[in-house]
Design brief:
single chain, about 140 residues, alpha/beta, five-stranded mixed β-sheet, 3 helices
Length: about 140
Amino acid sequence: MTGIGQIRNITLHHSASNLDTTAAQIEEWHLARGWEGVGYHFLVEASGRIMIGRPIHLQGAHVRGRNHGNVGICAIGDNTVAGQEWRPAQLIALRELCHAITLIFDLEMADILGHREWEGARTLCPAIDVSTVLGF
């Protein structure tokens, strides 16, 4: 794995799985793909609990061709499936986590994108407007 370099972005994802999926299960899926561990730096469970994934000083594996300088945050659930959408506790945790990262790394809220917002992305992920989620 290579280092993340200067952090310039945060990308939000949904796991495209049920709300009861665990961070450990997502790591297993990523290991099965031949990766060196979970591709996200943080995972937010339905309860709002924030789990540390890939160490922040290492480059993630979450936006093809755009991982350098990009912190990946995945909230468990699937915003395209009724009943599996992010829960209020997750939204609060996402706001707080993103706010903390922007303060630590001197980023602007405009530096936070949903996976689908990256040029060339072929996904609905996270299937929710990031600015609405973050309240800006």
